[in-house]
Amino acid sequence: MARKLLPGTLIVASHNPGKVREIRDLLAPFGIEPVSAGDAGLPEPEETETTFRGNAELKALAAARGSGLPALADDSGLSVHALGGDPGIYSARWAGPEKDFALAMRKVHEALAAAEDRSAHFTCALTLAWPDGHVETFEGHVHGTLVWPPRGEHGFGYDPMFVPEDHTISFGEMAPDAKHAMSHRARAFAQLVEACLK
């Protein structure tokens, strides 16, 4: 039986404003007030795990123990099949210290230059952690195809080059509500809601 999250303040273990905004929108109906780790003055822990799940749990536990409050962490990224799953857990690192995702998308495009297979998927591991060390982790995926040049001004990260299965527009071209309804984060979040918020 999953542990329930009660209404109140929740630390979102992220310094990424786009990600925090998306999580705030998803949590709005549940009486939970998300505060970003950056706003709470918490440092970003080094992501030393080798899986999305491991890094999500590491970040959530660090934020929960550092704040004394429940914390939610997301570790997500783009896995490109022709690149053996890269950039994967290193998706943000491909953007460099300036978090330049135009650069990261170009790196993916250049690495794929000779590849016919342009299939890829996003993964999101979402972990709720409590200060006592208890964790609940959920994972969501969305499959699609990569396009070049990037398209659209919405979303963040690799969204403008990713067209989800059964769609003709990229995540970057989708209205936020449309993306929220089907993204890897939304799929992980639906599991979290079912287990911990209902």
TrEMBL record:
<dbReference type="GO" id="GO:0036220">
    <property type="term" value="F:ITP diphosphatase activity"/>
</dbReference>
<dbReference type="InterPro" id="IPR029001">
    <property type="entry name" value="ITPase-like_fam"/>
</dbReference>
<keyword id="KW-0546">Nucleotide metabolism</keyword>
<keyword id="KW-0479">Metal-binding</keyword>
<feature type="binding site">
    <location>
        <position position="75"/>
    </location>
    <ligand>
        <name>Mg(2+)</name>
    </ligand>
</feature>
<keyword id="KW-0378">Hydrolase</keyword>
<feature type="binding site">
    <location>
        <begin position="156"/>
        <end position="159"/>
    </location>
    <ligand>
        <name>substrate</name>
    </ligand>
</feature>
<dbReference type="InterPro" id="IPR002637">
    <property type="entry name" value="RdgB/HAM1"/>
</dbReference>
<protein>
    <recommendedName>
        <fullName>dITP/XTP pyrophosphatase</fullName>
        <ecNumber>3.6.1.66</ecNumber>
    </recommendedName>
</protein>
<comment type="function">
    <text>Pyrophosphatase that catalyzes the hydrolysis of nucleoside triphosphates to their monophosphate derivatives, with a high preference for the non-canonical purine nucleotides XTP (xanthosine triphosphate), dITP (deoxyinosine triphosphate) and ITP. Seems to function as a house-cleaning enzyme that removes non-canonical purine nucleotides from the nucleotide pool, thus preventing their incorporation into DNA/RNA and avoiding chromosomal lesions.</text>
</comment>
<feature type="binding site">
    <location>
        <position position="179"/>
    </location>
    <ligand>
        <name>substrate</name>
    </ligand>
</feature>
<keyword id="KW-0547">Nucleotide-binding</keyword>
<feature type="binding site">
    <location>
        <position position="46"/>
    </location>
    <ligand>
        <name>Mg(2+)</name>
    </ligand>
</feature>
<feature type="active site" description="Proton acceptor">
    <location>
        <position position="75"/>
    </location>
</feature>
<comment type="similarity">
    <text>Belongs to the HAM1 NTPase family.</text>
</comment>
<dbReference type="InterPro" id="IPR020922">
    <property type="entry name" value="dITP/XTP_pyrophosphatase"/>
</dbReference>
<keyword id="KW-0460">Magnesium</keyword>
<feature type="binding site">
    <location>
        <begin position="14"/>
        <end position="19"/>
    </location>
    <ligand>
        <name>substrate</name>
    </ligand>
</feature>
<feature type="binding site">
    <location>
        <begin position="184"/>
        <end position="185"/>
    </location>
    <ligand>
        <name>substrate</name>
    </ligand>
</feature>
<comment type="subunit">
    <text>Homodimer.</text>
</comment>
<dbReference type="Pfam" id="PF01725">
    <property type="entry name" value="Ham1p_like"/>
</dbReference>
<feature type="binding site">
    <location>
        <position position="76"/>
    </location>
    <ligand>
        <name>substrate</name>
    </ligand>
</feature>
